[in-house]
Amino acid sequence: MQEKPSVLIVDDDPMHLRIYGWIVEAAGYCAQFAEVRLADVELPDGAADLVLLDYRLGGRRTRAVEVAKLIKSRFPDVPIVVLSDELCLPDDIAPLVQGFVRKGDPAKLVDYLKQRLCSSP
Fold first, then answer.
1. What is the pLDDT of residues 55-106, one digit of tens each?
2. Rounded to whole angstroms, how far apart are CA atoms 32 and 10?
3. Which residues partner with 101 through β-bridges?
4. Cα–Cα distance measured from residue 86 to residue 76, given in angstroms and rounded to the nearest whole number
5. Which end of the chain has fewer CB atoms within 10 angstroms, the N or the C?
């Protein structure tokens, strides 16, 4: 039996982690979580198939760029997708990520995951 694709959700808000975890799991994927704290973020040991990264972390726009660089150094082959309420992908993080999905539309997020992970659970 093939293992379900795994999505790592990185956010500074525990409620957002839960909400997006439910969406990811309801779509048939495994959800992993990394909460960004004031001084650090603890990434899981195992790599995911895709990372959803919130753009506004701790109220600082530059923080997501720092976290994306950390994710890339740890998991260089895992695509990072920005999940944000911004209207479009911010220029500062664009070179580090492979996609952008706006918050507030779970159906679009699920469609994006299905396209990106190349499998419909």
1. 988 766 558 999 999 999 999 999 999 999 889 999 999 999 999 999 989 9
2. 9
3. 83
4. 25
5. N
pTM score: 0.90
Residue 106: phi, psi to the nearest 5? -55, -35
Are 81 and 103 in contact by the 8 Å Cβ rule? The answer is no
Radius of gyration from C-alpha coordinates of the chain: 13
For residue 52, count other CB atoms closer than 10 A to its CB.
26
Other CB atoms within 10 Å distance of the CB of residue 45: 6
Q: Please state, in angstroms and rounded to a whole number, the distance separating the CA atoms of residues 101 and 121.
A: 20
CA distance 55 to 15: 15
Contact 92, 66 (CB under 8 A): no
